[in-house]
Amino acid sequence: MTQGPNEQRLRLTRVVADPGAAPCAHVELTFDARRRSRHPVTLSDGTAAGLFLPRGTVLRGGDVLRAEDGRTIEVVAAPESVVTFTASNSTLLARACYHLGNRHVPVQVGDGYARFLRDHVLEDMVRALGVDLAFEVLPFEPEVGAYGAHTHTHSHGDDG
What we know:
There is one protein chain. This protein is of the alpha+beta class and 160 residues long. The protein folds into two domains: 10-77, HSP40/DNAj peptide-binding domain (Sandwich), CATH 2.60.260.20; 79-139, Alpha-Beta Plaits, CATH 3.30.70. The protein is built from three helices and ten strands; from the N terminus they run ββαβββββαββαβ. It has helices spanning 31-34, 90-102, 120-129, and strands at residues 10-16, 25-29, 38-42, 48-52, 64-67, 72-77, 79-86, 108-110, 113-117, 132-139. The strands form two sheets. A six-stranded mixed beta sheet has the order 2-6-5-1-4-3. Strands 8-9-7-10 form a four-stranded antiparallel beta sheet. Strand 8 (108-110) and strand 9 (113-117) form a beta hairpin. The model is unreliable at 149-160 (pLDDT under 50).
């Protein structure tokens, strides 16, 4: 992240469990941006900011970030082009999820449906398995994985 000599960028450095007060702004991020720990962002009020989070942090919609100056910012999951698929039975739905997971594709799993980011190759693959596809623009919140006990790390003290 490069800055001009007079430019000050708000540094968002921690995910907080209890912000104490309502966030003063929000930042809308795609799933790809929510899994990157260091990059520039623009807040809803136009403020230039930068994420400086611990490596491996994956943000979720509704998370709250604390800036170095104490301000809190809410994370909003941006709407994205997704494929939501359903199946005539749970075995078929599980089979499609298995094949996506086998390719390390992030998948959001819900009650009777699953969802992934638009990709014509993957769409053709699951369609060939016999699932029904719907193309939508929605926030994407995929599963974090079997070994990820938490979606992100929380800093509960001042030592960060």
